[in-house]
Amino acid sequence: MNPVVRTVLQRLGLGLITLFIVTIIIFSAIAMLPGDFAKAMLGQSATPETVAAFQREIGIDRPPVERYFAWVGQIVQGDFGSSFASRTGYRRTVAEIIAPRLYNTMFLAVMTALIAVPLALGLGILAALYRNSWFDRVVNTVTLTTISFPEFFVAYMLAYLIISRDTFIGTEFAQSLPEWLAASINWVLNLVPKFPTLANISDRTPFWEHVWRAALPSITLTLVIVAHMMRMTRVAIINMLASPYIDMARLKGMSPMAIVLRHALPNAWAPIVTVIAFNLAYLIVGVVVVEVVFVYPGIGQLMVDAVKSRDVPVVQACALIFAATYILLNLTADIISIATNPRLLHPR
């Protein structure tokens, strides 16, 4: 068997084993959460008989092991079960609840990736070409600053910036500044597009309107993830530029940009792709905070709401989707790294 194919199959097998272990962790963690959905729904005035009947109806009266294998069996068949919010004659499946929210999260993640990945690669290549220059220092300082703050802080600061666009000139702080300075700051603030600070999105929202309303969450995520990818690109390119074959390319009279794009970048893909995959996985898994801040109707916001209402099937499905996406993107990174750098098949 081809070594690359064998390695890919091994990684896929490890991925499936990891996902199986993750299902156990997810089910166990949720099962140990305090509180009872039946009692929370029926209220304190409910009799023990009513609570027991409701528990039987939603299936939480069975032993945990039985419930776990029933849940896994449903997942294998593509069925995430029914929400605890279902009622007799009105069955709401988890898939029905998650589908539109998952689309919104994927939309936000793809939109952010289309901005962040080219931006990070471009900045990383330029920083490597002009290393130790003022450009390199400015880019590194700005990206390190943005990555040093948590997502919610960046999100709130961007929202405050948009709000200040119309209110700054009337604030006490602006009044305390010299008139020319306050006018200059106000002029700069008015250059900022007035993005919506609340992502009011529904199924009927037109595509470009969706893009406009998701702009601020997307910018927040871009500022948070671009630093990792940019710095790894810079380091990988600088390491490649020290190789003997790069000296040969310089002796042939090739331009610095051509050397990077044709010789350095293809050989530096392995670490760069790995970091890109990690950050793309974060876009799916780590959007919870950003979705909550901007009230973006994605799967992260849904999971938070489901935890509050103790809707266990929805929480389990959301957690499993996050885990499966993270594992899949890491497997993809491994496969691309091996395909672009076969030397990884023979570790020292």
TrEMBL record:
Membrane topology: Multi-pass membrane protein
Superkingdom, taxonomy of origin: Bacteria
UniProt domain ABC transmembrane type-1: residue ranges: 102-333
Entries under InterPro entries matching the protein: BPD_transp_1_N (IPR045621), MetI-like (IPR000515), MetI-like_sf (IPR035906)
GO (cellular component) term, any one: plasma membrane
Transmembrane region(s): 12-33, 106-130, 142-163, 211-230, 268-294, 314-339
Keywords: Cell membrane, Membrane, Transmembrane, Transmembrane helix, Transport
GO biological process: transmembrane transport
Compartment annotation: Cell membrane
Family to which the UniProt record says this protein belongs: Belongs to the binding-protein-dependent transport system permease family.
Protein name: ABC transporter permease
Lineage, uppermost ranks: Bacteria, Pseudomonadati, Pseudomonadota, Alphaproteobacteria, Hyphomicrobiales
